[in-house]
Amino acid sequence: MPMAPEELKGRRGKQADGKAKTRQVYLGCVFTQHHTNDQGHPVRDHESTTYVSSFQSIDAFGPLLRQEALRRSLGSAGKVVVLIDGAAG
User: Fold this and answer.
1) Which partner for 31 in 8, 14, 49, 80 could form a disulfide, CB atoms 3.0-4.6 Å apart?
2) What share of the chain is helix, strand, coil (3-state, %, to 5)?
């Protein structure tokens, strides 16, 4: 995510001079789906999505996302699907 210079003080970046122009941000969402459409594709439940985001490390973000999923009744879900981009973490 692009950031203002004052928000990047003390951060090492990938620029030739070592400065950072961006910060990594994690974003996750939790939603429910109980129905499918006429073609059998899943349909997200209306207004069921909540989002979690953080500039913290993935080690700190993972538990935040899990906590939100638990708050949203992850423990009683019949099926849980996790989608990630394949990056380490």
Assistant:
1) 49
2) 20, 20, 55
